[in-house]
Design brief:
With 117 residues, this protein is mostly helical. Helix content is 68%, strand content 9%. Helix 1 (6-18) crosses helix 2 (23-34).
Amino acid sequence: MPAMGVLESRFANIIWSHEPLASRDLIRMAEEELSWKSTTSYTVLKRLCKRGIFQLQDKVVTSLISREEFYGMRSEEFIEETFDGSLPAFIAAFGTRKKLSDEEVDELKKLIDGMRR
């Protein structure tokens, strides 16, 4: 699934945070939060619908995949493409630039324990 640009992500987050959402309300919110004209909002919405992330049905916008699913898929693709699918290689590379706090390490351990088969 192709990545979203920064503005597309902000637009998508409006939808995910308020769905189901009448298209006119989405257009109003995008105008207020992003300073977009309605044509821009409809163009981006159409693009995101074509990509299978959202749908517009009876003037109501809903998601076809959740925010968590979308970013989970993007994360998997990034690790697959960049680190040959190795999560440990990703974490090792991440750790060379940023040290983790004890709280972050504990949180990661809990997440990993929850993922065990």
